[in-house]
Amino acid sequence: MSDLVLLHHNEPMTTSLAIAQGVELQHKNVLELVRKYTAELMQLGEVAFQTRLNPQGSPTDVAYLNEQQATLLVTFMRNSPLVIKFKVALVRAFFELRDKLASQQLPQPGGALFLSHAADVMVAADRTFRAVIRSGRVAGLTTAQAIRRANEVARLKTGVCMLDELQAHSQLAALEAPAPINPEVQRVLNFWAEYEAGAFASGACLPILTVNAYELYSRWVKQQGAEPLTLPRWSNVLQAAGLVTAKRKRYQDANGNLRGPASFMYPAGCKSGPDDMTEVHWLGTCVDRINTCMEK
After folding, report:
1. Is 70 exceeded by the pLDDT of residue 215?
2. Is residue 109 predicted with pLDDT exceeding 70?
3. How do 59-65 and 48-53 pair as beta strands?
4. 137-146 long-range contacts, Cβ below 8 Å, gap at least 24?
C-alpha cells in the first residue's frame, strides 16, 4: 500500500490502478465504475485521466482521484471484508501523506517557491479554475459569474489569482457590463412606459387591441422623428421584456355585437375587470376607451 496515495499536481490523490490492486479487481472494472459515476465524482472535483502502457504494452487510461472521490467510488463497491480493509488503508494513507506534507512545512502559495513546486501550484490552480467554471455553467451561472467564482476558489485553494495571471480583469469587466440597448428597442420601451402611465388612455392601464397599440406606437415614434419597427418585431420586443402578455379574446363592440377573437396586449400590471362585468363586456369598454383617445 506504499504507493496507494501520491502527490499529484500539489494535491494528495490516488489512482484507479491503485484502487484495483487494493480491492483485487481488474483495472478495467474499476475504470468502468469511474466512468459510470463520472457525474457524481465531478461534483467533488475534476476527474483527470492519464494514458499509460499496461504490462502487455497496450495503452490504458488511469484515473486520478482525490480523497473524497476515491472514498465515494469505494462506496459503490460491495462491502466485502477486503473492501472494508482497503477503505481503512485508503483513509490512513491520505492522512499519512497530509501529515507528512505538514511536517515538511512546504512553502505556501505566494511565498518563495522552488521552480518545480511553483509549476505544480500553477497546474493545480489552472485545473481548479477550469473545473469550477464548467461546474458553474452547468449549475446555471452566467459565464462571468462562473469565472468570478472559479477565480475565488482557485485563489483560496492555491493562492493563485488566475485573472492576474491571465491579465483578464478588463475582459471580464467587459463581459459583465450590460450590453447597450438598441435605440429602436429603447424607443419601444419608452413608448410602453408612457402607455402604462396612462398617457394614451386618460390615466388607465388597460388591455389594448394589438393593432391599436401598434398604431399608437407608430404615431408616437414618428413624432420623435424616427421610423417604427415592424409590428412583429415591436410585439416581440415587448413580450421578451416581460411587459405584455399577448392573448386572443372576444369582446363586445359599442353596438353590442360580439367581435373576435382578436389579438389583445395585456400590460404586465393590468388588473382584471370589475366583478359585476363579464370579460367580454369589459374588453369592449377598454376598446371603446382606447378608440376614443385615438380619435382625439
Report:
1. yes
2. no
3. antiparallel
4. 143/175, 144/172, 144/175, 144/176
pLDDT of residue 223: 92
Cα dihedral 65, 71, 74, 80 in deg (nearest 10)? 140
Taking residues 221-244, what's their average pLDDT? 91
34-88 pLDDT per residue, tens: 999 998 998 888 888 888 777 777 788 899 999 899 999 999 998 899 999 999 9
Is the separation of the CB atoms in 123 and 107 below 8 Å? no
**Residue spans per domain, the chain:** 6-104, 115-176, 183-295
CA nearest 78: which of 112, 29, 149, 18?
Answer: 29
Phi, psi of 75 (to 5 degrees): -65, -20
For 37, residues 6+ apart whose C-beta sits below 8 A from its C-beta are 72, 73, 76
Length of the chain, in residues? 296
pLDDT digits 0-9 by tens, 272-293: 777 788 889 989 988 888 888 7
CATH architecture of the region 183-295? Orthogonal Bundle (1.10)
Phi first, then psi, for residue 196 (nearest 5°) are -65, -30
Cell 389583445 identifies what position? 264
Mean residue pLDDT of the chain comes to 84
